[in-house]
Amino acid sequence: MKTLAYLAGATALAAAFSAPAFAQSEIATGANATGISSVNEQMKDVEESVRDDFDRSSDAYRFGNPERREGLFGSVALSYVGRTGNSENQDFSLAGRLSSNQGRFSQSVGILLEYGENNAGDTDTEKTYVIYEGMYDINDRFYGFALGRLTTDALANDPVSLGTDESFADLDGRLKRDAYFGVGPGYRVINTDTTAWRVQAAVGVRYTKAVDVIDPVAESYEYNTETEVGYLLSSRFYHRINDQFFITNDTDYLTSDANDTATNELGLNFKMTDAFATRISYKTEYVSDRATRTDNTLGVSLVYGF
């Protein structure tokens, strides 16, 4: 059920906080053989992680619907890697998104397909993900939203997908299907040039179909299906102290028959100059049915360009 709380944050889209650009580097001749390329890719991963951290610190919808592209549009991306030699396997992924913006109503549908084969030529990955987001602005303060997600794993009951260090018993609890859909209203309580606070509530239904291992030795199993209702409350707060400093606080609370989940993230965002920006965040996550119910995470992101 923790996933439902994270899905609620999908309505807070993209970033208004502008961080300095990262330096772009070229890969020299011979970089692949000497290992420079692999290090460069790791550096890019760090840079992208910092970008994402800054992006999440802002809320493009805090003052209402931002300017956006009207009509129907989308994108498709495909990736394939086939390996021979010491390793013989292949991986394929396909991602696509279709969006539509018409006046006060915006919606988007995304799909991700993943397929892979191991060195023995057996399929070890076959997953499908579908997500839906919709928002309708009733007026400058009221809006309605909808969130949907469907995940399928064709190999949830197949030991091949586990790897060499796990046994058939580890299939227990694997999700064959995992679906969620929720709707609710939102309201912008404060909506000024310096301060924005919006709250939203939703009721959602989650459906799961999980593997239930009966006898690991005989490799027998059955499927266990569950449907549960969850109620979600969310808050998004933003306050700008001045042109260089703003504060954000994001809160989500989900309650269902399974458990109660709450997350709160406080962010302090500094943009000292066009070349130097810092974000400090403190996130608390509470899950009622864990042995240690609360986890705390301190995050620091720094960008300096010259």
Could you write a compact summary of the structure shown?
With 306 residues, this protein is mainly beta. The chain contains three helices and twelve strands, in the order H-H-H-E-E-E-E-E-E-E-E-E-E-E-E.
Structure description:
The chain starts with a helix and ends with a strand. It has one domain. Helices cover 10% and strands 58% of the residues. By secondary structure, it is mostly beta strands. The chain contains three helices and twelve strands, in the order αααββββββββββββ. The chain has helices at 2-8, 31-34, 36-56, and strands spanning 71-83, 89-102, 105-117, 123-137, 142-153, 175-191, 195-215, 220-242, 245-256, 260-273, 276-287, 294-304. The radius of gyration is 22 Å and the shape is globular. Mean pLDDT is 83; it is low at 1-19. A twelve-stranded antiparallel sheet has the order 1-2-3-4-5-6-7-8-9-10-11-12, with helices on one face. Residues 1-23 form the signal peptide. This is DUF481 domain-containing protein.
Task: Name the assembly state.
Answer: single chain
The overall pLDDT average reads 83
Regions with pLDDT < 50 over 5+ consecutive residues? Answer: 1-19
Terminal Cα span: 44 Å
Largest sheet: number of strands, sense, barrel closure: 12 strands, antiparallel
Strand order, sheet with most strands = 1-2-3-4-5-6-7-8-9-10-11-12
If you compute it from the alpha carbons, what radius of gyration comes out, rounded to the nearest whole angstrom? 22 Å
Protein name: DUF481 domain-containing protein
Keywords: Signal
Signal peptide: 1-23
Organism: Paracoccus denitrificans (strain Pd 1222)
